[in-house]
Amino acid sequence: MKNLPSILSAIALATVFALYMCTYQVRFTEVAIVKTFGKANQQAVTEPGLKFKWPPPIQNVVKYDTRIRLLEDTPEETPTRDSNNLIVSTFTAWKIADPYQFHRASSVESDAEDNLRTRIRAHKKTVIGKHDFSEFVSTDPEERKLAQIESEMEQLIAEDAERDFGISIEFFGIKQLTLPQEVTQTVFDAMKKVEQNKADNFKSQGEAEATKIIAQAGEAANRIMSVARQKADEIRADGRAEVSRLASRFDEAPELRIFLDKLEAFDQLLHSRATVVLDLNYPPVDLFKLDRVQALTEDADAEQQAVRRRPEAVTSEHGEGNKQVASAAPGGD
């Protein structure tokens, strides 16, 4: 009985060791491949939890991380279809889609990344070689096709990765796009020349359009001036006719015409609101002489009295005519 604790301890250790050798745990972020006598089972263990197996060397377990991982390739010069070099680097997010195929293609995960990086490099060169430089770098948005180029690369890489490596490409893109130092200045000069040609074309088009607009405006101005001259000639002719008519009326009253001419001359004389000292004996200020004003006043009064007498004379003539008719009427009786 003295050896009982030792025996129990040995039994416990043997049990723990047996459990360790015959069990394995799969986390929810892992997938397991069970290998029997070195041959992998095609059915992977994807359910998390405690699993049982035969102890080595009968069965061994290889576990892989199923989370998405990011792979970035190294930048390198790649020629385009029109023989211009570009430095392109990409990023790829991938995860294990087929654990059995992944185990067969790569004994360890680092080998899988190397294999995937090799395929990415090959397909990147292939796709870039099918496109011109302007589809990568251009001032015209319609010429740039980066999204299309990325899609072509991703499609080729995804097909190979899933078929050969059991890897699923979750997303792919171009991380960096630069130009070699010796090519940069040449490319910038070429782009500058293209933009300068566009600017010259726009300038020539603008000058042609400006010449066209000026010519149209000149034609419109000539038409308007022609109509305006015709209208001015008509107004001028009407004015001459009116002047002739008024002149003929003034010929009937020359004194009135002389009076009005003096008033007009006086108006022009005082138009500037200046103080002018003139002799009353000279026209047109002779209108302000006292005797001249009195004569004009007497003429105006005489004219008014003559106008008043005309209705009285007419009334008296009508009255005498009525008397004669009245006196003749009784005699006739």
Descriptive notes:
The protein is α+β, with helices and mostly antiparallel strands and 333 residues long. 59% of the residues lie in helices and 17% in strands. The chain is built from seven helices and nine strands. The protein has helices spanning 4-22, 99-105, 109-128, 146-165, 181-252, 254-269, 290-332, and strands at residues 23-26, 30-36, 39-40, 49-52, 59-65, 69-72, 76-79, 85-96, 167-178. Strands 6, 7, 8 and 9 form a four-stranded antiparallel sheet that branches. Strands 3-2-5 form a three-stranded antiparallel sheet. Strand 7 (76-79) and strand 8 form a beta hairpin. It starts with a helix and ends with a helix. Mean pLDDT is 80; it is low at 321-333.
